[in-house]
Write a structure and sequence with these properties.
alpha+beta; D-Maltodextrin-Binding Protein, domain 2; Dipeptide-binding Protein, domain 3; six-stranded antiparallel sheet; two-stranded parallel ribbon; 42% helix; binds 1,1-dimethyl-prolinium
Length: 267
Amino acid sequence: DSSANISEEVEHTITGIEPGAGIAQATDNAVEEYENLAGWEHEKSSTAAMLTALGDAIDKEEPIVVTGWSPHYMFAKWDLKYLEDPNGVYGDVEKIITIARQGLKEDMPEAYTILDNFHWEPEDMESVMLDAQEMEFEEAAQKWVDDNQDVVDEWTEGVEPVDGKSIELVLTPWDTERSSANVAKIVLEQQGYDVTLTPVDPSVVFEAIAAGDADASLAPWMPATHGAFYEKHEGEFEDLGENLSGAKIGLVVPSYMDIDSIEDLEP
Ligand code: PBE
């Protein structure tokens, strides 16, 4: 049948991204958990390579199965769908949270308050990511701040300015987190902070904050994507709650493919 052809045409391969991504771990788990994925390969490389492979397949209207997530421009650029995940390996709706090192509240109460207040919508993040297709993330973030000064004013309301204190934020190397980190950087700089952004793997985000080597991060995706790292370090960092809700991860295919569920992929 057609789904058997799909499996053969994609050579029983899921086109993945960087091995350190939470979605890569989740996909290894999916290959383990779904009996129909026995014998499938999860090929990890990079986000750029995955997007190139996806674009090439769509140009030829060939099947492809990738690891995908939202917010991401892939859904605006192409007609795509998430495969249903009856085993719930990829979770349902994800939120992005803010975490801080122990003691940040006492050491830098002004920054702590701003980071605690930082909350925006997927549309906000998407607009920064879209602009960043044509300009640097710094510029795209500045544009969002200029256009949304009322939102920023809510985050900084009643917070006293500081005089050049240094703060380090860690982020993961995807566009979603480049957006939030660059916006946070500008807002903290407006307040008088000297801000360093350090991109690292998701595991290192939690390690650095737990060890007190970095001050805060707006990068963790919960509960499915980075839940294992969160649990490993629980109690060694402070959870400031969500900064965005309505994110998602999963297996993604072009809409023209005649399957709906991970279970439709044949062994
Ligand atoms: N992502 C985007 C990351 C987090 C942000 C879903 C590719 C991951 O760790 O899987």
